[in-house]
């Protein structure tokens, strides 16, 4: 399969809201979009770097935990538009650190878009809280918009 885009769901669906990236990735996978690879990962920097190296577009989804969290709030950012420190993962080694490592190693996708969802609970449970579960369809729609508007995908679809 020719991979034009990678949708990366980061998280652990056995840690309550930390599974939001996994839930979004599963919904995207169900759509079976041509040229789009879907990957679920716990956020291991090595596997993320391997997966996104050379991919024209990567859309990543992760849970975010911060002091001013509003459970279910969705944020979108891209490198260069906002400081990497603005992304606060619910993991010890988050996307911001993976991005920095990828930059140092010359292993970045051509275009990277990250969606984070503010979480309420990351305890050992298998279900998302209602506020975070409510954000899943919105993030799926936002990803579909990113995929439809990506210039490299549009050019290929017109051929």
From TrEMBL:
Pfam families: HycI. GO terms for molecular function: peptidase activity. SUPFAM superfamilies: HybD-like (SSF53163). It comes from the Bacteria. Keywords: Aspartyl protease, Hydrolase, Protease. One of its GO terms (biological process) is proteolysis. InterPro entries: Pept_HybD-like_dom_sf, Peptidase_A31. Gene3D superfamilies: HybD-like. Coiled coil: none annotated. Belongs to the peptidase A31 family. This is Hydrogenase maturation protease. It comes from Mycolicibacterium nivoides.
């Amino acid at each position: 399969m020719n991979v034009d885009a990678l949708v990366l769901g980061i998280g652990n669906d056995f840690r309550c809201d930390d599974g939001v990236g996994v839930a979004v990735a599963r919904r995207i996978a169900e759509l079976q979009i041509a040229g789009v690879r879907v990957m679920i990962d716990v956020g291991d920097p090595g596997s993320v770097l391997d997966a996104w190296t050379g991919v024209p577009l990567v859309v990543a989804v992760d849970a975010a935990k911060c002091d001013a969290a509003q459970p279910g709030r969705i944020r979108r950012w891209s490198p260069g538009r906002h400081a990497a420190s603005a992304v606060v993962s619910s993991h010890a080694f988050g996307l911001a650190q993976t991005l920095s490592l990828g930059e140092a190693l010359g292993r970045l996708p051509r275009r990277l878009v990250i969606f984070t969802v503010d979480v309420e609970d990351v305890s050992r449970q298998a279900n998302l809280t209602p506020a975070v579960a409510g954000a899943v369809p919105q993030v799926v729609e936002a990803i579909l918009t990113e995929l439809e508007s990506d210039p490299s995908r549009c050019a290929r679809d017109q051929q």
